[in-house]
């Protein structure tokens, strides 16, 4: 099966996360550690640094926005997963 999301700007089509990573040329070893923002139902809302899910887009009807800033850390101080 695999994780799926609806990349914003891709006409509402769902994509497998693995396929998206391949098309974005993300190296295999980086894919398992790539940060994802998910909701309480484990739906992918943001493939961090790459693409927002269409269901999480800001529209004229959006009442509240959560601003999240992703910053690279020091790889020497990173905790193992």
Describe this structure in words.
The chain is built from 2 helices and 5 strands. Strand 3 (36-38) and strand 4 form a beta hairpin. The protein has a 3-stranded antiparallel β-sheet with strand order 3-4-5, with no helix packed on it. The protein has a two-stranded antiparallel sheet with strand order 1-2. It has one domain. It is 14% helix and 16% strand. It has helices at 17-23, 28-31; strands at residues 4-5, 15-16, 36-38, 44-47, 51-52.
Helices, by number, come to: 2
Give the CA-CA distance, first to last residue: 24 Å
Major sheet: size, sense and barrel closure? 3 strands, antiparallel
Strand composition percent: 15-25%
Kindly report the spatial arrangement of strands forming the biggest sheet: 3-4-5
Low-confidence stretches: none
Report Rg: 14 Å
Total domain count: 1
How many strands in all?
A: 5
How are helices and strands ordered from N to C? EEHHEEE
**Roughly how much helix do the residues carry, as a percent range?**
10-25%
* General shape: globular
Nearest-integer average pLDDT: 88
Which structural class should the secondary elements be placed in? alpha+beta
């Amino acid at each position: 099966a695999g994780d799926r999301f609806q990349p914003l700007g891709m006409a509402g089509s769902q994509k497998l996360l693995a396929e998206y990573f391949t098309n974005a040329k993300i190296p295999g070893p980086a894919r398992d550690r790539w940060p994802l923002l998910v909701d309480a139902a484990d739906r992918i809302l943001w493939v961090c640094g790459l693409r927002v899910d269409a269901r999480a887009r800001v529209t004229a009807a959006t009442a509240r926005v959560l601003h999240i800033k992703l910053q690279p850390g020091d790889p020497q101080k990173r905790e193992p997963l």
